[in-house]
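Q: Convert this sequence to structure tokens.
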Amino acid sequence: MSSYVLEHVGERASGYVHSVFATSFNVALDGFLFHVGDSRHPLSCCGANVAPDRLAAMLARCRPGDRAIVKRRVLRVYDVAGTWELDLGALEEQSLSIASPVARGRLAALEGAVAALGVEDLIGLARDARFSKVVRALERPDPTEDDLRRAVGFLLGRGPGLTPSGDDVLVGYGAARWLCGGAEAFARVVREAPLWRTTDVSASYLEAVARGFANQGYCELAQTAALGDEGRFPALLADLQRVGHTSGNDGLFGFLVGLRSVLRG
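A:
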């Protein structure tokens, strides 16, 4: 389970099953969207992963709107057939904080590896004049808070899907800024943004990155860069690209823009 979850889901919380998918589900708990996924997949900074057979049993019963509570670190869900539980206290905690700066030289190697993917041609947004203007502002060595507000205002909720492409770009950008040691202004702007304009799932990831947390794929990429293990970049980047229809490439494009912002300074 992500350490970020522990900041929001303590000994007691209440809510309901928010959404159910083929291989995961979300539970809204006192305003926090808690994701439960498959242990064969990368861990979400907003959730926990469980064994496939355990997840299948939960998904077979899980329905949006089912009442849910957390008591003494146990998630309990009430459905038409009765009650089922997930012991959160039994799950291994994993830190998905990305707020650990990496040496500039090693960031340059990472920037080169991401740039080689050509992700700007694979994103889910139209690359029109306004989009290009926003990207140029984000790529500046030290974008002002006004620059950041305009960029967030333009990208927030832009595009279709569970996590719109514009939001994925922002999450990737935020992850890179934390990795480069200069995310405070961006984080402040995101925390003040009208996140109700986008999906609940996207809002949860934007809130997380504003606090220095990212999904496991980005954290592993950051750790690999910090160690200078450039040989692992292709496999880690390929895993990130496989996320969603365009979400992976959208996020990596934002990540690339964030890296360029720092390296040009």
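The first helix runs from residue 3 to 6.
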